[in-house]
Amino acid sequence: MSAMLSSKPLASLSSGLLARKGQAKPAMRPQGFGGFASSAAAALDDLGWDDMGSPEPAAPQTAPTPAPTPAPTPVLVSPAPPPEPEPAEPAPVPPVISLREALAKRIEQVREPKSVSLATAARIGRESAKQTKNGKAAFTLRLDADRHLKLRLASALGGRSAQMLVTEAVDALLDTMPEVAALVAQLPEPKRRR
Prior knowledge:
It is built from 7 helices and no strands.
């Protein structure tokens, strides 16, 4: 009864049982490449554990090396023709691909310019002449943050103002639209102030 009341644990791992750093030894014996033992009964008995506590490891067992056999003579065989692929059913086209193709066709189509009557062009010319007192018109250009940043960087790199860059871009766009130049040629000359 006194043994049950003692505070000492029944089993403990003490420093004497622990291996010191660098002095640990493996619990299993080294295994040879040929197997554990030569007979089947000995192979069942020897599990590889170093349960005997011997300080010297067991001598490694080596399997007898079989005599080399001559290589078989090669047999020449003509290569078989490659199998012909079976005609596969065409895979269904995903909707994304069909939408992409439809958009490409719409982009490739030549846009027919909307016809503007001479009277409408003259009215637009009069309205813009009223707005341009000094020969220049002002308008507000709204850009998203990314385009605005790119415009400012292009301005800094090119050493030109953003207005000059936008004006050049508008001129380049208008040069690709010959119908605009044809309409302007039909308008009467604006009155010039002295």
